[in-house]
Amino acid sequence: MDATITLTVDGRERTLTVDTRTTVLDALREHLDVTSPKKGCDHGQCGSCTVLLDGRRALPCLALAVAHDGADVTTADGLATDGELHPVARAFLDADAYQCGYCTPGQVCSAAAVLAEAGEGWPSAVTPDLDAERVTLDRSEIAERMSGNLCRCGAYANIVDAVASVAGTDGGAR
By the 8 A CB rule, do 37 and 75 touch? Predict the structure, then answer.
């Protein structure tokens, strides 16, 4: 059975007809030719497909497109403004926080969400003060929050450095 849905992808409203079993990831990649989110495991385990779905990070490989009719989807490409890289993407380049680059779009979306979540005071499993208005993003906090995004090349230390640089911290000692 098919359904017609509308998604706003990287600021552009797109209407498409999909099988009701189509995931948001497949709608993006196969129907709209948006290839920034990568299909890694297709089981929600690697984070390569991470996007911002209505402003919150999400794994589009686990989300049915019909359940998100009308949603706002931001990919790593959509984080850029006026042809300039988002500060997180720039920090990834500056910190050499990628190797093969396959996971990088998902990592960048996740890192942008980490900064927003910490800024809003959302605690993680390693946050020492659950009542703090703002969370300090030290290395353990960043690593915990980014743990849902795997990097097969092992660029984790540089990824933490990149996120810390955008957060305005040194990320603590290595």
Answer: yes
What domains sit in the chain, N to C, each tagged with a CATH number? 2-79 (3.10.20.30), 87-167 (1.10.150.120)
Q: What is the pLDDT of residue 134?
A: 81
Q: Give the tens place of pLDDT for each residue, 140-155.
A: 999 999 999 999 999 9
- Lookup: tokens for 145: 């929050």
pTM above 0.90, yes or no: yes
Q: Looking at this protein, which amino acid is placed at residue 32?
A: L
The answer to whether residues 23 and 63 touch, using CB atoms and an 8 Å cutoff, is: yes
Enumerate residues 6+ apart whose C-beta is below 8 A from 120. none
Helices (H), 64-122: 76-79, 87-94, 104-119
Strand ranges across the sheet with 72-74: 12-19, 2-9, 72-74, 51-53, 56-58
* C-alpha dist (Å) from residue 24 to 11, 108, 145, 149, 173: 16, 18, 23, 18, 39
Answer positive or negative: Cα dihedral of 41, 42, 45, 49.
positive
Strands (E), the chain: 2-9, 12-19, 51-53, 56-58, 72-74
